[in-house]
Amino acid sequence: MKFVDDSQNLRGRLHLIQALVLVLLGVLSVRLYLLQIVNGSRYAEIAENQRIRLLPIPAPRGVIFDRNGKLLVDSRPIYSIILSREDTKGIDRYTLIKPLAEGLGLDPEILRERFDQVKLQPAFESILIKEGASQADIAWVDAHQLEVPALRVEQTPQRRYPPNGLLAHALGYVQEISPEQLEEPRYKEKHYKPGDIIGQNGIEYVYDEYLRGRDGYRKVIVDSRGHIQKEIEVVPPQPGQDLVTTIDLDLQQAAEEQLQKSPTKRGVIVSMDPNNGEILALASYPTFDPNLFSQRIATKAGRAEYAALLNDPHKPLLNRAIQGAYPPGSTWKIPMAVAGLQQGAITIDRSNLVCGGGIQIGNKFTRCMGNHGSPDIRTAITRGLKMTISGIMTMVDEFDINKRTGIDLPHEIISTTPSPDLKARMNPRDSEWRDIDTVYASFGQVYDIVTPISMLRTVAGVGVGGKLYVPHLLKEVRQVGQQSEPDYRPAHAFQSLDPQRPNPKIVSIPEDQHKVVVDGMWGVVNNGGTAGAIKMAGFDIAGKTGTAQVVGLGKDTGANRDHSWFVSYAPAYKPEISIICLIENSGFGSQHAAPAVRAIYDVYYAKTRPQPEAPKNNIALRIR
């Protein structure tokens, strides 16, 4: 039998096995090095995040006050139901729509929209399921923790506005940021996320960065099902900065009451301090409830309410002060008078204008509201002035009527003012500018379509000798903290949104010419003029009524009646307050707009002029 020596083969195999083991140990060593040394901190963070959660604590917005410290807008704590996206990994969230909708009384389509909106957002962001949860809602969440452990209840702030739509067009409203807004640079650069509540209109929008607070958070330990086991740390939220407006709540309430009582219940009243541009009241009617957007818009009923607002023919969402466009009628004659004197079209000594009930130009006769003989400029300021179109265009530019006023509200429109180019666009078949067109333009009709805020700024500027201030609603944003503290946010006063705009803009009105114009406006109220019925003892109002034609003669009835205007300031020779009123389709300015303005002056007078005390002996007699 022949013996075969396999020892050499065996040793070779052992060496191969040893080499493989060394290679495997090397690979494992490298892998352990990468896991523990190179990427150790990353994996430690991932492991830690499996048990630690940062739950945001939303910050309340700053409180909004009127100029006298009266509360206008605040935020109240409510309970909201939140769904953690991170704790719903691996399941189809859309399968939760039906049980959540049935259990919490929600619209399934709104829930579906919320789930759709967060698809492209980071996984750690939570989903707001329901705001303003009731005790029954909270009990339902507690009872279904096993089925839906990712649900939790949190306390969140909810914006609260004055009742009955008071100040709605000035304050604006807040609402959850939309997917479209999340893509805008203004919000994208500041890392806004779904569910954030932002200002969407009014001063809530313009001063959102100040009113917004800084969110806090809770650092908690959770178990494998997402249930909170322990709270590690709490960083409280920092409320937004409080904002003081220029609004006087008493004047605002009086203005809104007058519009509610007006014949058509459609119109606008704005009051302003002509010496600095501070808005004292801004009322547009009909109005709307801003609480709809902060409290009810995410419900089926809330969306139906919003749709009704959009389809309302009276346009309650329209801020008529800055978005309403109306022919100014005879109120236009105030800047026309100033410009006529400046340009020498009329003079103080030679100011007589034949009226005769209107003006004959060629074969056309344009009527005036009555027959006023041959008045001097102090009366003619309420009737009509002859100027060329170039002179009118110069006046428009001088008073900035062809520009936005710069008020700190969004969506202000620009007034339409007369020019040959405008006529060419309006009437391309008869584009030539004629003398009759100049007459229409000088009367505040056809080619003149202005916003009430623009007209108020113009006339208030005349009242104070040619200083046109930018109208504004911000008086002060209050500071938060102290300058040495890390959470310090400084105070902020109003600054023109357009740094290139002079504030005030100066219109040169010589003193003698200014007196003639003011005398004329004084006479409208105090010397037998069209607004004589609102004359106040001891408080001289200077003003101008206007009756703006909406359609041609013979058709101006019902819904097409003329607009009623009154623009004014007081006291006449040292103005403290200016007011403009327009009542839509209500007829003569002296009949409706002027009395509404007088009611505002009554409130202002009572607030600023101390009332005499009753004699002490009379009080004693009554006690006896």
Largest sheet: number of strands, sense, barrel closure: 7 strands, mixed
Measured as a percent range, the helix fraction is 25-40%
Number of helices: 23
Termini separation comes to: 152 Å
Low-confidence stretches: 351-385, 619-624
Query: pLDDT average, as an integer?
Result: 84
- Number of separate strands: 21
Q: Which radius of gyration do the C-alpha atoms yield? A: 35 Å
Content of β-strand = 15-25%
Shape estimate: elongated
Structural class: alpha+beta
Description:
- The protein has 624 residues and is α+β, with helices and mostly antiparallel strands.
- It is 35% helix and 18% strand.
- The chain contains 23 helices and 21 strands.
- Helix 11 runs antiparallel to helix 22 and helix 15 packs antiparallel against helix 21.
- The longest helix has 32 residues.
- The C terminus is likely disordered.
Reconstruct the topology from this structure.
Elements: H1 7-38, H2 40-49, E1 52-57, E2 64-65, E3 71-83, H3 97-104, H4 108-117, E4 127-130, H5 135-143, E5 151-160, H6 168-171, E6 173-176, H7 179-182, H8 185-188, E7 197-201, H9 202-206, H10 208-211, E8 216-222, E9 228-235, E10 243-245, H11 249-261, E11 267-272, E12 279-285, H12 291-296, H13 300-311, H14 320-323, H15 333-343, E13 358-361, E14 364-367, H16 377-380, H17 389-398, H18 420-426, H19 435-442, H20 452-463, E15 467-468, E16 474-477, E17 492-493, E18 505-506, H21 511-526, E19 542-548, E20 563-570, E21 577-583, H22 593-608, H23 616-623
Parallel strand pairs: 2-10
Antiparallel strand pairs: 1-8, 2-3, 3-4, 3-5, 6-7, 8-9, 10-16, 11-12, 11-21, 13-14, 15-18, 16-17, 19-20, 20-21
Helix pairs in contact: 11-22, 15-17, 15-21
